[in-house]
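re: that chain from earlier
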Amino acid sequence: MYFPDFLFRKITLPFLKKSSILLRGIINIQSEALKWMDLSSSLLEFVPRPQDIFIVTYPRSGTTLMQMMLYQLSTGGKIDFSHINEVVPFFDRLLTYQIQSVQDLDNLPNPRIFKSHLSYQNVPKGPCRYIYIERNGKDVAVSYFHFHVSHLGFQGTFDEFFDLFMKGRVMYGSWFRHIAEWQKHQDDPHVLYLKYEDLKKDLKTALYQIIDFCQLDVPQVHMPKIIRQCSFEFMKEHENKFDHISGMVWEKGYQKNAFIREGRIGSGTQLLTPAQIELFERTYSQI
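^ sequence. v structure.
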């Protein structure tokens, strides 16, 4: 059958180009998901200590803020690091990428503080403490979309990403499944379950909750400095200390000052259509 050339140029070619861009974005997302979830077998050798503290979230839910909060509280407000992962290591990547061995981790002083995005099923179990942060899933979807664009080379639209997000075809899988697992354990004595929105509304109260839960000794004289240095404005100003894959993303078209983006509550309603909000809320009510 004859297919006019002008129709090919106007209809088929743009469609193929868009499909190719979306496919590359999906491949990037899924290949990264395989890397991040392919945890080294040596992680099985890790034995938690009673003093260990695991900061656990689904990505883009306040993990970096909590890293900063805990390091500030445990050091009296020091910022003596070039990158936050040096002092609060990203547990999921440590051994998978052979950044540190189990022996290296054994040499870290107490309290050892780790960042993780692992599900409850996969996180190391022990007599340690776990701080889990839940963020509004619609806001997570928007922030995660911008992260994939700025850091992972995703070139699709938000609608295309949202479809992947709702199906759990992104790094760390389904947001719904992730929080559902942790919600079942929110009343466990070794779990402090927090809401990101509460951290943003009342940082001072959250800091004292953490002090009490982790049994930290923080002199009151340090608290004003700690509160100031845990603010969004301070962390945005020192963003180079917090972008957790800055060494990897320059070659992927890194966009400066895109990691700590806005941190606003309610951004999930800006890009989501009413139909997408309805789909999200319906799925959320079923977990």
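Residues 5-37 form the longest helix (33 residues).
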